[in-house]
Amino acid sequence: MKAVIVSNCNAKAYYNYLAALFPDWDTRYVLKTEADAWIASGHEKFLEFLSEVDVFIGLPESHEKLFPKHLNKAAVQVLLPSFIFMGGRPDCVLLAGITSATRVGVIHSRIAAAAFVAGKSVEEAAALYCARHFEALGYFDSYAGSRRQLLDSYRPFGVDLEEEFEAWRGYGDFMYTPSHPQTRLLFDVLHKALAGKGIVTGREPGFVAQSRAGFEDYLARGIIWPVYPEIAERLALSNCKTRWRSSAAKGAGTEFDLRVMLERSYASFAARPDARRRITVALGGKEKLRELAGEQPAV
């Protein structure tokens, strides 16, 4: 059996799953960005492998590019969207082109970005990270909606994660960033998806559980965006990360606090001449920006 995985940071987890449960398969994985480049350049070995695979696992958008022109039409197709759960981190936002305070990626704080555009000082911005402001912004009510969005994102592809989510909830905070879960969750996602295709039939439950228990949690070495203490307390979330951390996979993995996050964020914003425009658009317009900056009541 030949399998190919085309995904984002989840790709390695899916590969590790297949390597553990199907060691005899010829399994290969590639990040979406690299796959896109290989398709554009006509990478012969990649395209040849695609034409021969028995199982395709990957992002729906990657599948659209590969099928039916390049992918074996007889391949079992397992489509898995990105794992996004904002739950305990409703303040996070991606700002394309603006480096994160974590020094990797473009993840930022909505409040910090809004405060910068509003002309607030770091001290004034720091004062906004409090229960009263989080309440006004609806941050305490976001968990249920985020849960629904996550589960709904998988349902169109035949993957029902209702039971799995309830088990994950028992771990407390199971994310490192809104798009980086503990990899055992990705193990569960792929296992459920393959079970729905009849592929994991016959695997001993004990062996599956043992493989899951020893699953490499490589995303734990990446950046960490914490759950703010007030949110963790209100949601009764245990095992929360309480400080920001740079990547331990690409650097020292240094932890830092709110003030450092704000100082670094402000420096990144100031370095982009178009930062104010980008932030205003990303946050949903001037009215929403004022709410986030604490300049008018949130509705």
TrEMBL record:
It comes from the Bacteria. InterPro entries: WcbI (IPR041307). Residues 3-195 form the Polysaccharide biosynthesis enzyme WcbI domain. Pfam families: WcbI. This is Polysaccharide biosynthesis enzyme WcbI domain-containing protein.
